[in-house]
From TrEMBL:
It holds the Pfam family IspD. It comes from Saccharopolyspora mangrovi. This is 2-C-methyl-D-erythritol 4-phosphate cytidylyltransferase. Belongs to the IspD/TarI cytidylyltransferase family. IspD subfamily. It catalyses: 2-C-methyl-D-erythritol 4-phosphate + CTP + H(+) = 4-CDP-2-C-methyl-D-erythritol + diphosphate. The gene is ispD. Keywords: Isoprene biosynthesis, Nucleotidyltransferase, Transferase.
Length: 231
């Protein structure tokens, strides 16, 4: 039995605004993707990784990961969900004995190993689906189409969701087979087919690098971790 991680990395990074796909953008000389995949394989609980690459960059991405054993590359799709679906389709060949599947954004490349292990452990303990979460710290308001506040939402039960998200592999396959096409995260598809999604504690270091500001934050996180490694 093995754990396989799917890494959707086929996005263009429009909000980051650089000339290359976001996953290939370097932070201190190493790409987000290389850092993310090495983090998964180095966590000690992931045996295989399937990366969904920008379709026109498959060879570049394969070369980027050439030093990592058990990292496989497939062409991604137009939306994140399409990329995950394509990577999931490769699992039967790449890791036929997989019982747990993680889905992890290349853009969350500083995720602590302990958080990856927590997600895997929760699935192995019997949860069909697991997401790491953080409490919401801002006040949250609903606004109408005119930009007027209609409600202040009680934030106590709200959580911001990170990746890796972990699944019993049959549960994720069933969700992708029957839940329809678009969701902003993979657990959302499981929810749609009535599956129970459990939570574990997330971590601020698992931020999703989306904007130039996030990239600057990532540089700072890396500098801090290099000066006092915790994992
Ligand atoms: N068609 C897509 C779109 C996104 N992703 C991946 O999904 C993750 C989360 O998406 P996001 O952070 O929004 O990345 P981008 O889509 O690249 O960003 P943007 O929306 O700014 O273009 C990223 O690792 C991204 O590469 C993907 O594999 N396939
Ligand atoms: C999957 C995700 O990272 C969970 O927070 C997030 O939903 C991805 O959203 P994006 O709009 O594709 O960046």
């Amino acid at each position: 039995m093995s754990v396989v991680a799917l890494v959707p990395a086929a996005g263009r990074g429009v909000r980051l605004g650089l000339s290359r796909p976001k996953a290939l953008v370097p932070v201190k000389g190493e790409s987000l993707l290389l850092r993310a995949v090495r983090g998964l394989l180095g966590s000690g609980c992931v045996q295989h990784v399937v990366v969904a690459s920008p379709p026109d960059q498959v060879e570049v991405v394969a070369a980027e990961l050439a030093t990592l054993p058990n990292a496989h590359v497939v062409p991604g799709g137009a939306e994140r969900t399409d990329s995950v679906r394509l990577a999931l389709g490769a699992v039967a060949e790449v890791a036929p004995d997989a019982h747990v599947v993680l889905v992890h954004d290349a853009a969350r490349c500083f995720t602590p190993a302990s958080m990856i292990r927590d997600v895997v452990s929760a699935v192995e303990a019997g949860a069909p689906a697991v997401v790491p979460v953080l409490p919401v710290t801002d006040t949250i308001k609903k606004v109408d189409e005119l930009g007027v506040v209609v409600e202040t939402v009680d934030r106590a039960p709200l959580r911001a969701v990170q990746t890796p998200q972990g699944f019993n592999i049959d549960v994720l396959r069933q969700a992708y087979a029957s839940a329809g096409d678009i969701a902003t995260d993979d657990a959302g598809l499981v929810e749609r087919v009535g599956g129970k999604v459990h939570v574990v504690e997330g971590h601020p270091d698992a931020l999703k690098i989306t904007t130039a500001f996030d990239l600057a934050v990532a540089e700072a996180v890396l500098a801090a971790e290099e000066s006092s490694p915790s994992d």
